[in-house]
Amino acid sequence: MVQIEDWLLAIDIENTKMAFEFNSYLCESEECRNFVEACENHMGPVVLEFANKLGIDLAKPSQLESLHVNNNAAIMYSGKYHIIGEVIEGELDAWDIVLDTHCFSLTSEFDMVPIVMIGSIIEISFEVVLPWVLEVKMEV
Fold first, then answer.
1. How far is CA 133 from CA 47, 92, 94, 118, in A?
2. Kindly report the CA angle at 28 between 79 and 41, in degrees rounded to 5?
3. C-beta of residue 69 within 8 angstroms of C-beta of residue 76
4. Which of 9, 29, 36, 107 has minimal Cβ neighbours within 10 Å of its Cβ?
5. Residue (of 59, 63, 66) closest to 111 by Cα position
C-alpha cells in the first residue's frame, strides 16, 4: 500500500517496474528526446521520489505530447503513465498533485495502456514545462 496525501493506493510495484522495463515507447522527435534526457538526468528529488514510490519510469510515458511555450524557450509536455494497482481510498477526480513543475492527476480515460500491463490499472496524467536540455539547438 502506498499513501499519497489523502489517497491510499494498492500498487504492484514489482510488476509495474517490470512493465516499464518492457515498455517499447518509441521516441523519435527532438522534443521527445529532450523529455527523455530531462527525465533521466534533470529531475528534482521530490519528483524522482514520487515516481519511485509508484514504480514509474518517468522517461517512458504511455503517451506524450509536446508544445513549445515561453517564446520557444521551453516545452510543455503532457502525457500519461499507467501503473498496476487500484485506488483504495480517495476521490478519483480530486487528485491533483503538484511537485516542482509537474502536475499529476488521476484520470480514467485509459488510453494507450501498455499491453504488458494486466489486471487493475491506475492511470496518471501529467503536465510539466521543461527547459531544452539537449546540446542540439531546439527547432521551432
1. 17, 34, 33, 35
2. 65
3. yes
4. 29
5. 63
